[in-house]
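User: Show me a protein chain along with its predicted structure.
Assistant: Here is one chain, sequence first, then structure tokens.
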Amino acid sequence: MTSIDPNPAVPVAPPATGIRTFHPRRGRMSSRQTDALTRLWPAYGIGIADLDGPVDPAGFFGRRAPVVLEIGSGMGDATAAMAAADPDRDYLAVEVHTPGIAHLLDLVQRHGLRNVRIAEGDALDLVRAMPPGCLDAVHVFFPDPWPKLRHHKRRIIQPAHVALLRSRLTGGGTLHCATDWAEYAGSMRSTLTADPELDDVYAGYAPRPDHRPVTKFERRALTAGRPVFDLIHRRRP
């Protein structure tokens, strides 16, 4: 695995291609998080900017199993919970928030999770390096809504990005999005429905699936009166 500098003062490297769809995020870390990052990153971490050439995600795990790509894993609690409940699939989490990466690494060790790896950097660059049909599912939970109209071009759920993500799904694989931003939910729905190779599993917003854990972020949204919208689309065989 490649290395990551645990110093939160180090700036995030500029995007390799295209328009960045995320805010660079560092932040202060606890001593436990710093220790987890230092000790565990070499075993479980992947620096996207350090990758050279095509990438088979199964190679990160040392076994051949269905792979779930988590784009924007935040603090990692949901990713760890899903991976623990789903040991027959491997979870590849992508995040740029250093404390979140460190916290997920700590959870991986505490819960003995063998089916989690964490990548730091631009998820779209990682996906571009993957072969078609290599992912069983892609999760995009609570991405930055980029609410200002002039920033909509930075949203991750837009036609070109959806086409890229869908192309990496196996036949029958799912693209699952969730947001608490109503306007973005409508935009997501229109974009996903327009893709010619995706089928809307629920013909509209999906009921909240049991397999997606409720995070602190989601609880805050619900407490504030913001409904959460799930969308689940499946790639045609």
